Every structure is written in structure tokens, then in C-alpha cells.
Amino acid sequence: MTNLLIDFIVVKMNIKTTRYFKEQILRKRSYLKIEWCIEAINKPLKTEVQHDGRIRYWIYIRKKDKYLRVVTLEDCKTIHNAFFDRRFKE
Predict the structure, then answer these.
(1) Chain centroid, CA 28 distance in Å
(2) What does the pLDDT look like over 58-76, one tens digit per residue?
(3) Are strands 55-61 and 66-72 parallel, antiparallel or unpaired?
């Protein structure tokens, strides 16, 4: 997914992301879909507050047969990180 397309989706859907997420995470983890991240925030299997105030959300991605962890800033809206979490147990 190109940066232009990501920017379009983020603006159109009124999603906030950190610069780190847009420039590093989506570049390194091209398999990630922004829709998965949004779904994780809206319908998580589990949530957890980190010591630094950021929030973790988990969702199961059936297509990949894996659990995705999405991390937002303290505002619960700004996506900062996302990755498949091998250690997550439901």
C-alpha cells in the first residue's frame, strides 16, 4: 500500500496515526491492513493499559490465523504500533 493511499484512507476515515506508524510500521509490515487496526480498536478481544499509558488491543485475524496487537496513544484513537503477537493467549 502506498503512502498516498494510506494518507487517503486515514483522512477519509478520520483515523489518527503517529508518524512512526505511517513511516516505519506500515513500511516494514506491508502485510498489515489499516482495516484490521480499526477493527481491533472498535471490537477488541482484550484491552490492556501499558505502564506508559498507551493502550493495547488484540483481535483475531482469521485470514492469517494469528492475533494482531494494536497499540494506541493515551487518547485511545491514535494508532502507534501494530504487529502479530505470537505470545497472546485468549
Answers:
(1) 13
(2) 999 999 999 999 999 999 9
(3) antiparallel
Q: What is the pTM of this model?
A: 0.84
* Model confidence pLDDT, tens digit, residues 30-54: 899 988 999 999 999 999 999 999 9
CB-based contacts of 19, cutoff 8 Å, min separation 6:
none
Q: For the residues of the chain, what is the DSSP string, one character each?
A: --HHHHHHHHHHTT-EE-HHIIIIIHHH-TT--HHHHHHHHHS-SEEEE-TTS-EEEEEEETTTTEEEEEEE-TTS-EEEEEEE-TT---
Backbone phi and psi for residue 32, each to the nearest 5 degrees, phi listed first: -70, 145
